[in-house]
Amino acid sequence: MSIRTEKVASLLQQELGTIFQQEFSRIGPIITIVDVKVTTDLGLARVYVSIIGTPKEQVAIMTSLQTETKSVRKILSSRIRHHFRRIPKLEFYEDQLYVHATRIEQLLNGVRKSFDDIIEQ
């Protein structure tokens, strides 16, 4: 990524985080903007979100984000319109890093327990 796309991604991540904190905090689960990747033409921003909640809540939030993309983009536009001629189109993806890290930690704990059982014998 170029310096410009990195700056745009950073600004979008910061502003979207603020928007989600103010607008979506009433929904329930915690939503965190993990990463934003912007295409080189600045026309598309892929937003990776982490949702801490039940699986049912995660699905509901992702569905809500998909249907509310235009309204989120409109709110974003009102906040950063002086920075851009055209606000990038937003695509939301769920970041599964937290789920994978938890699974790896569970596996490692199982291996440690098995190893400790072997050593005790």
Notes on the protein architecture:
- With 121 residues, the protein is an alpha+beta fold.
- It has a single domain (3-96), classed as 2-Layer Sandwich (GMP Synthetase, Chain A, domain 3), CATH 3.30.300.
- 58% of the residues lie in helices and 20% in strands.
- The chain is built from four helices and three strands.
- The protein has helices at residues 3-23, 55-67, 69-80, 97-120; strands at 30-38, 44-52, 89-94.
- It has a three-stranded mixed β-sheet.
- A hairpin with a 5-residue loop joins strand 1 (30-38) and strand 2.
- Helix 1 packs across helix 3.
- The longest helix is centred in the C-terminal third of the chain and has 24 residues, at 97-120.
- The mean pLDDT is 86.
Q: What is this structure, in a nutshell?
A:
The protein is built from 4 helices and 3 strands, in the order αββααβα. It is of the alpha+beta class and 121 residues long.
Summarize the helices and strands and which ones pair or pack.
Elements: H1 3-23, E1 30-38, E2 44-52, H2 55-67, H3 69-80, E3 89-94, H4 97-120
